[in-house]
């Protein structure tokens, strides 16, 4: 029986793996998205994560497609009350040619009070829900005071449009600034952080140096994105071999191919062989054993991909396996190699 995990100190309890929906309307069409969400829900999954800007980079697409697909799925299945709906606000909505010389595009993004209140209403309509369970600041807006941002989030909670608030891609000091402001001003406080975090260098170092300590100390739930390093940790990339067919192959080759990262993949394969698992399951099981971790957010373009990752829930690594993986991905080693 699956054990659901409390998100920080909030009242939300999540399936150990969140389902990210950035690919819906991009690399996975609506029919496929419905099949993936059906399979996730059937397995006990209850945490769907999206953002208003998914997928704005598609030519002619004003954004919000992922939210719309999620909304139609929940309405068709009648399961809204079973789902923890998480979305984000910050990015620009609408094509860059929408401003017609008036600069309006710059008023359709950010973390200002004006934009947060408008963006939330728009997300509610696309999702076809009366409230969002977890509303997150997608990344920092350095032009808007954090007091204004948190005040707007607080108003949304008071109106009943939002249940809890979180942040994504905040540095440790930005998160501390927000927590301090919430406490000092008696405003709603972030219950979660969504950082980029995986076994790959440098994302492991970036999180563990400071953010992890803040999360543990202040009871902040961690729901990382890209826990498989854009697919690098699935083992589909081979050292010195041609790139496989993948929408992220070139990105991985440019930013993630290193001797240490390939050593990490080799270690995952070795542990997988001993545990009757696959490398991706081992990488996720390692992450679930880390302090403050609630639910890594996975993505899938097919039911087959999803089913493989869901096998993580039944996998428990022993201390020796965890230590071997941690040693292979040790970020102090990466720093030493860069200094040579």
Summarize the structure in words:
The chain is an alpha/beta fold and 340 residues long. It has a domain at 5-194: NADP-dependent oxidoreductase domain (TIM Barrel), CATH 3.20.20. The protein has helices at 30-42, 65-77, 113-127, 146-159, 172-185, 203-218, 249-255, 259-275, 279-288, 303-310, 319-328, 331-339; strands spanning 5-6, 13-14, 18-20, 47-49, 84-89, 132-137, 162-168, 190-194, 221-222, 297-298. The strands form two sheets. Strands 9-8-7-6-5-4-3-10 form an eight-stranded parallel beta sheet, with helices on one face. The N and C termini lie far apart (49 Å).
Rounded mean pLDDT score: 91
List segments where confidence is low: pLDDT < 50 over at least 5 consecutive residues.
Answer: 96-103
CATH-assigned homologous superfamily of the domain at 5-194: NADP-dependent oxidoreductase domain
Largest sheet at a glance?
Answer: 8 strands, parallel
CATH architecture of the domain at 5-194: Alpha-Beta Barrel
Rg, alpha carbons:
20 Å
Strand arrangement in the largest pleated sheet: 9-8-7-6-5-4-3-10
- Proportion of β residues? 5-15%
Q: Treating each run of at least 4 consecutive H or I residues as one helix, how many helices?
A: 12
CATH topology of the domain at 5-194: TIM Barrel
Distance between the termini: 49 Å
Structural class: alpha/beta
Shape designation: globular
Give the SSE string.
EEEHEHEHEHEHEHEHHHEHHH
What is the number of strand segments?
Answer: 10
Fraction in helix: 40-55%
> What top-tier CATH class of the domain at 5-194 fits best?
Alpha Beta
